[in-house]
Predict the 3D structure of the following.
Amino acid sequence: MTSSTTTSTATPTTLATVLGSGDPSRAVPAAREGLDRTDAARQHVSSAVRPGGGVTMRLVNSSIAEALGDQLDIDVGVPLLAGWLKYRELVRAGQRTRDEPATQERVVLVEHEVTASYRPSVEVLVSGTPAATLNFELTVALRLHGVVAVVERGRLTALRHGDLEAVARLLLDGQELASGSYPWQVGLLVRLGDGIALVGSVVTAAPSVSPPPPRTATVPAPTSPAGASPAARWWEHSEAQPSASSAGPWWQRSGDNSG
């Protein structure tokens, strides 16, 4: 059996990690590919993206995905820990070990699932003009198997033997843009530090996640090709204009004067 105990220095597992199936750097590309594959964003910004206008949906979707990625740095262990602080058997074990500090109890957590929902939003600006505000839905399901919690001195101090599968889904207007899943040992997901107080006057408050502020996806105005002036016409280019020294008719040129 595998034993694992978290510490306060453990790196948190974020929404980006789950959506990227273990690789947080894959979360933004997965969201962008989903936006390109569906018309979920197009129907919101179609008035700002017109044929021949220079701004493409591919560019818009890329900007949206980057702004969305800034909101995925949330520890997915938080909702799991919040649920456990209300788990009756854990609280009772905390009471017993608080009254008898020399004892240690192990509590088997039955197989269960914890779900959490987040609603990131992105404001889209096209050429400096607000085009739309997109409200996404991101759900995470944490499915646990065979978790054993260690309780000492009224605190949850370790998690052993358990594993977990995390599944994330990203949606916009009911259309799934991306999904990811990844298995973990539960002790590597939830950070306990020096222990989580279960009972007494110092009982740890259930942790919560503050929703990240909306982000802005700024789509720049299209630019003209380098070296060309968009207002210039062919007859206005300097090279098409003869200089004053050579502008005379052919019969006035010095080389053509015979007399």
Observations:
- Residues 3-219 form one domain.
